[in-house]
Specification:
Length: about 230
């Protein structure tokens, strides 16, 4: 099922011209320069062959308290399930040795209350080979990925532990706003007890899908019941 996820980047002609690349639906890998740390990565679909490496990347992030809970992904099956239900799962590989430097996974938002959600969730995890400043570039790639999916998501949600100040500031710089705080959301390495989590939100620029007219639906249900009686 992992092969159903989309690779979402096309070639970037001049990554230095803007702080982030502009992904588009594509079938081929591309080279992308993270301008804030001058690192070039290869962006491609996250395949099953890379899943074990991706899981190790996530576990390493958890060990260093980098916005991944210590027990958030206890086994590889948890990550596999996330990828299977995603709309897009892509990996960032370093040009010099081909090792995985980051993953971006876009899924329908669990907070949406509709069978056709207009909001998505982006999970972004990087290795230490991507400097802290360049995480901002990866966020931009994740947002463009969400924006260009066939689902036409109108907004994106990201979770960040309150203890991850640099990640929080990067999201604020990218235009995300704090919409909620969940107390005692998870365990973070090096912190006693449970740590709270911010839910951060940003619009993608796509127009939301037309809402369901609940008044018309209610009138229809009343009419159906009247006919039955």
């Amino acid at each position: 099922m992992m092969n159903k996820t989309l690779n979402t980047l096309s070639s970037v002609e001049n990554a230095d011209a803007s702080p982030a690349a502009s992904p588009a639906i594509s079938a081929a890998a591309t080279h992308l320069t993270l301008v804030r740390c001058r690192k070039t990565v290869i962006v491609d679909k996250l395949t099953s062959e890379r899943l074990q490496e991706a899981f190790q990347l996530v576990r390493d992030a958890a060990d260093r308290a980098d916005n991944v809970g210590v027990d958030e992904y206890p086994t590889i099956s948890y990550l596999e399930h996330l990828v299977q239900r995603s709309n897009a799962a892509i990996g960032l590989r370093t040009v010099d040795d081909g090792r995985l430097a980051g993953v971006i996974i876009v899924t329908p938002c669990i907070y949406a209350r509709s069978p056709r959600p207009t909001v998505c969730t982006a999970v972004v995890v990087t290795s230490t080979s991507v400097c802290s400043d360049a995480w901002r570039d990866v966020i931009d790639v994740a947002m463009d990925t969400a924006r260009r999916l066939p689902e036409m998501y109108s907004a994106c949600v990201m979770d960040v532990f309150v203890s991850c100040v640099s990640r929080l500031l990067a999201l604020r710089e990218a235009g995300f706003i704090i919409t909620a705080c969940i107390p005692h959301a998870g365990k973070v390495a090096g912190f006693p007890g449970y740590v709270s989590n911010y839910i951060m939100y940003k619009e993608t620029g796509n127009a939301p899908q037309p809402p369901v007219n609940t008044r018309d639906r209610l009138h229809s249900l009343v009419k159906e019941r009247a006919l039955k009686t």
